[in-house]
Amino acid sequence: MRTIAVIARKGGSGKTTLAVHLAIAAHLRGHKVLLADADAQRSAAEVLRGRQGPGPEVVETTGSKLFTLQVAAVRNAVDTMIIDTPAVLEDELGHSIVVSDLSLLVIRPTFLDIAAALRTAEVIRRLRKPGLIVLNQAPAPREGVEPPAVKRALEALMLMRLPVAPLILRARANYQSVLESGRSVEELDPANPAAREMGALWGFVERLVYGRRTGERTEA
Ligand SMILES: Nc1ncnc2c1ncn2[C@@H]1O[C@H](COP(=O)(O)OP(=O)(O)OP(=O)(O)O)[C@@H](O)[C@H]1O
Ligand SMILES: [Mg+2]
């Protein structure tokens, strides 16, 4: 089993959106998935309660219970555990980072998000755990050229000394509308740009944590 935490101390950066999407991405490729909702807001649990049909299992938990939950998940033959975390200072994120094979640091391309994430990146490095930065809610390129805010953000992210995902998640209305039915952009229309970027991000993440592709999409 592999565990992936989605973290950011900034509220609203897209942790829950990404955690739910990655959980469904793994489910669509045949994984048995557990989404551990470690945020007292319970947004991820709320989203998945609205889902009809098969999907990731969701458990409401807290940081200090994650290890026990992980042991139980291994016993229950879960393939992938995704942790949605609250927007809190790094001290409270330690459990999530420590139990995970990869921590995804979700950052919007803004000065305040990047400034806040510097310290989080430092904590991931100090704990000697693998981390990956995912830029989210980025404006779209114009005629193939990244907007200045994205260029500046990519330059600033170099200072974090953590790898940056080669896929940038753009600000798209689809990410907002799908969650009310507990679905992923990949389940809307596999050809839409959001589905393509999310599928590609999952592919990148799974190669990092599993060292290989683990399965093709099987379900519409
Ligand atoms: N790529 C995106 N494009 C458009 N909207 C997005 C995108 N990612 C997230 N959002 C929207 O941004 C808002 C915040 O997202 P989300 O709840 O996932 O963030 P969060 O980091 O989990 O917030 P919190 O810190 O409150 O837990 C939501 O309205 C969500 O629909
Ligand atoms: Mg959230």
Give a nutshell description of this structure.
This protein is α/β, with parallel strands linked by helices and 220 residues long. The chain has helices at residues 15-28, 43-49, 66-75, 94-99, 111-126, 148-157, 173-178, 193-210, and strands at residues 2-7, 33-37, 57-60, 80-84, 102-107, 131-135.
Describe, in plain words, how this protein is organized in 3D.
The chain has 220 residues and is α/β, with parallel strands linked by helices. The protein has a single domain, classed as P-loop containing nucleotide triphosphate hydrolases (Rossmann fold), CATH 3.40.50. Helix content is 40%, strand content 14%. The protein has a six-stranded parallel beta sheet, sandwiched between helices. α1 (15-28) crosses α2 (43-49). The two termini are 25 Å apart. The structure holds adenosine-5'-triphosphate and magnesium ion. Magnesium ion binds next to α1.
